[in-house]
Please model this.
Amino acid sequence: MTEKTEPGLDNVDPRIQGAVITAPEVDAWFEREVLPLEAALMQYLQHNWRNKSDIADLRQDIYVRVYESALKGIPDSPKAFVFATARNLLIRRLRREQIVPIEAVSDFDALGTAIETPGPDSNLIARDELRRLQAALDRLPPRCREAFVMRQVDGLSRREIAARMGVTEKTVKTHLQAAGRALADILYGEHADVRRTS
Amino acid sequence: MSSAGENNTPNTVDVMGIESRAADWVADRRNSEDWTPERQAELDRWLAQSLAHRVAYIRIEATWRRTDRLAALHRPMHEPAQNGPLRRPFWMRVAAVFGLVVVTASFAGRYLLQPHPQLIETPIGGQERVMLADGSQIELNTDTAIRVDLTAQKRAVELVKGEAYFEIRHDAARPFVVTVTDHRIVDLGTKFLVRTSSQTLKVALVEGSARLENASPHVRQQAVILTPGDLAVATADSVRVSKRPMREVANALAWQRGAIALRNASLADAVAEFNRYGGPQIIVADPDTAKLTINGTFRTTGAEQFAGMTHEIFGLRVEHQNGNIVLSR
Model:
């Protein structure tokens, strides 16, 4: 490129936009806008897909498609976009199986819009969040929880945790890995069950 | 349901396997004593292999970050170390923090409860989040200093240098006032970004409203009320306010997540942004080159990567001289 580039979007080499509007921006958007929809999405998938063992895979597939589209441009309404993506994916899969129950397809729309999603995080709900974290931790297997609490609450390294628990570092690693996955499923995949004391 | 057709879906690779791997990576990266640049490079490669990897990683990392606030339950350091695993005490400690505002600590955070004035500074490349006793929060960007003075009557913060983002709990009885040399920003329940450099002060209003006024006795200047999307640029004797798309305001806050977001920025401005964070300093050799336009989002620590991109896109020559990076045609 030898000619001088003038300011203005049209003159920007498309490679710049394609190549670099990536990681941090989309990652942050995904975390902020898409992950909080997961509980609703899981509910939607469970309603609309008979084979429950496919659901984790469907969710992952939807996330990949949503993320991929966001790289080309962040959608205006994340919720509408996620559910439209989910719906299209389910329809595509049903088609491939050559059995498309019409009522299943029409259900998608009704559900997609009716599902309640939580509002954005705010400090006001910090107390609820803490309770929620606590309840989620409570559901981890005891040794797994122990390791995770030492890591996140007490800031111990893997080595220190291993010493205190009397196990190998590798075991600690396995506990922490399992804790991360289980907590993701609970904190994002399930609706918050917050009982307010009013 | 038959799964006959499932196998040709490109993304139907072993989801559980990817999730476990992502969860391993997150736990590994957070175990800083074993984390090396080599491991980071390995992680970067894994993330680049497929979006499925990336998405799974973001999800688990976000989960861990949510649980970072549990660190608020940690016992003070001077308490005698407890032997053996922790059990009850942890749950009892939950009660102790319920009165406080709990914070997502994406970078170092601290509570500021002391009533006397205090100077808080970040080094070049540093960031810090400060929680005030009233629930307000201030985030300091690189090379920034603020002086905080909280009393029963007033809440006063001086931005001595740099850039800070304020999220203020409104209290009509105790106004929150930010002063920057000659100017005063009085909160009317708000979130805003303030950046000061040698000659100018910039205030970007994110939420709520605030009043910007000139505090110098020598200048008669009308106070302006800022509303969301307003960007005010003030010098010693003038104030200019323009309405910007919220997207642009959000870009100005990209540093909160360790990023620099550039929209139609000149190369000169882009380079100035990178140079604030204390990596290798980038120098643009001639004024013509400095006028090139850049779009994109980068890590604040990504000066090298950025320089490489200017080579790829604009064909600029990238030279390393005395620890600096020189860009030229």
Observations:
- Chain A touches chain B through 74 residues (CB under 8 Å).
- Chain A has two domains: 9-114, 123-187.
- Residues 1-21, 99-124, 194-198 of chain A have pLDDT under 50 and may be disordered.
- The two ends of chain A are 65 Å apart (CA to CA).
